[in-house]
Amino acid sequence: MNADAFIEERPRKLTRAEKNERTRAALLEAAAQVVGETGYANASIAAITVEAGVAQGTFYNYFESREELFDRLLPYLGERMLDYIGERTRDLPDGGEREEAGLRAFFSFLVERPEFYRVLYEAETFAPAAFRAHTDNVARGFVRVLKRGAERKFTPRQLEAISFMLMGARHYLAMRYARGEEGSRRVPDWVIKTYMDMLRGGLGL
To answer: Which terminus of the chain has fewer Cβ atoms in its 10 Å neighbourhood, N or C?
Structure first.
């Protein structure tokens, strides 16, 4: 047997850009944890860097201030959410099946990332620019999907309004049925069925 087969390959050395991106992501992930536990008001740079496992001075190599970090936090988490949902809906046909899978994925994401609740709901007050960027990004995604399934029934501006209706429905259903005293929980199937019955009846999905 070739002796080289027993030689363990050394892991590739990260480039400086990759190291920087990894540290930036670690700070954002740490901020999500700290904000999720204590809220924006109590999320200090010291607490975030401790959670990230980096020196406090390192923070300023990536963000000019705590406020800049907050402005990037919700859009960052929002992209993680959209990626999570996208992975679970990508191969499904447009229409009701895809929307139901997306709804289930959204609730599943909240179980895995319960800190998203507080980051989102406090952002309107503490990081309004981030809140607007996130909601606009999610709304655009809804509109893209709706155009493929309901564009014959609604105008473009109506589709945008519908996208915000659907966002509101998801978030309030999450607040009512996905949050418990001990943290996130599975949403009952009858809630998802009710949501889908409404969509199929109103949008024809």
So the answer is: N
> How many Å apart are CA 189 and CA 165, to the nearest integer?
21
Kindly report the pTM of this predicted structure. 0.81
Residue 202 has pLDDT above 80, yes or no: no
| CA terminus-to-terminus distance, the chain | 60
121/102 Cα distance (integer angstroms): 21
Question: Any alpha helices (H) in the chain, and if so which ranges?
Answer: 16-38, 45-52, 66-89, 96-112, 115-126, 128-150, 156-173, 189-203
pLDDT in tens, 80-101: 999 999 999 888 876 778 889 9
DSSP string, 116-145: HHHHHHHHHHH-HHHHHHHHHHHHHHHHHH
**Whether pLDDT at 116 is above 60:** yes
State how far the Cα of 102 lies from the Cα of 141, in Å rounded to an integer.
12
Q: Which helix (H) or strand (E) holds 95?
A: none
